[in-house]
Specification:
Two copies of one chain form a homodimer. Chain A is mainly alpha-helical. Helices cover 66% and strands 0% of the residues of chain A.
């Protein structure tokens, strides 16, 4: 019973990740390049910056979960370490959309195969010693946090819709 | 081991709810009444509407989880069934902040006492028959969904900050 409960709760969290990504995917496909290049509100981040930011953060999850190297290591400097309008050259909107799909598809392929033990194992940014004391610093928690991050910025990017 | 795993994952989800609410609470305390009465972006929802909307949705969780009647049943008409600028009279910003704290504190008092079985039991909007087929329609799933809802609108209300 408890094993089933654990699997069920992990599936609920995975469903939340997938449904937020489905909504986000539909949103960025619906928005035109010109819309995504606009500010989400006056003086605020553009859609393109936020899209690149989400890709950079999710791409970094591949590393953090020990799955593979980042696909787009150059995004970290442009979309995490630098603010919008930094003068750094952005990839095109088409490239950003493709990067989002590539990263998300790779994550989902792994997520759908993870066992309960893998979900609850430590991520790569915590030591064995710290993890023994703080077992919540596991892979599932990283995904929960990234789902909220996506939802937060989706609330902003949606302002680009007419 | 599995029992511990289940409890750990529920706690991770509860921590996510609590940390989003802590951030939100700090945000609405920091914003002035005038800021909250402004549009989050030109032509978009005001902070006051979104705050009332969050209270209405979370207050409804009390009913949906079978805990008690809504504290603010009148908010449903103003902040869920009607759009912003409907002409309906809003409570003052001070009342909205107080309503947010009252609802959140009540939810948290219950959440901190819920057993695993209570979290995984059905919410009041699903029949026993449907729940037997769809066991994910449980109380924990409602909280996960409301945490994402809060995060989504918090991304918008944060645009009221200078």
């Amino acid at each position: 019973m408890s094993t089933h409960q654990t699997e069920r709760i992990i599936k609920m969290n995975l469903n939340a990740w997938e449904s937020q990504n489905k909504r986000f995917s539909e949103l960025i496909e619906k928005l035109t390049d010109a819309q995504l290049l606009s500010e989400t509100a006056p003086g605020r981040n553009t859609g393109a910056y936020l899209l690149g930011h989400i890709v950079a953060v999710n791409d970094d999850m591949l590393r953090l979960l020990g799955l593979r190297d980042k696909f787009f290591p150059e995004y970290t400097e442009i979309f995490i370490k630098s603010p919008d309008k930094s003068g750094k050259t952005f990839p095109s909107v088409a490239e950003l959309r493709a990067a989002y799909h590539k990263t998300t598809n790779e994550l989902n392929a792994h997520f759908n195969k993870f066992s309960t033990e893998e979900w609850l194992s430590k991520h790569t940014a915590v030591s064995e010693e710290d993890f023994a004391k703080e077992p919540m610093r596991n892979k599932l928690n990283v995904m929960i946090s990234r789902t909220l991050h996506l939802s937060n910025h989706m609330g902003q990017i949606i302002y680009l819709k007419n």
